[in-house]
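Q: How would the structure tokens look for this protein?
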Amino acid sequence: MAKGYNRPMGGGGGMAGGGGMMSQLKKLQEQMAVAQDQLAVETVTASVGGGVVKVTMTGDQHCKSVTIDPELLKDADAEMLQDLVLSAVNAALDQSRDMASEKLGPLSGGLGGLGL
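A: Here is the predicted structure in token form.
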């Protein structure tokens, strides 16, 4: 006899009992899609240099705006401005990732309950 031929009927990973898991997975996918849609419109703003450079970013890490106080441009050199912009972008990315983690974290935790 071939190996595995004597397996019991209906056991294992067939459809038996899998309907509930598929329903849970579909519900989880819908919740993830809603959360991702929310992240695309929600924003965070990071400010550096006492507010002279601000970067606004969405929860899905798209930069929406960079604001530089015109007063900074009177005395700033290019290297200082570059450093401030870089710091603001990185801070905005960190905040955006934190927001995404807060929204998506509970949903991805549900995957463990599905045996994934």
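The longest strand covers residues 43-48.

Helices lie at 18-41, 70-75, 78-113.

Upvote if useful.
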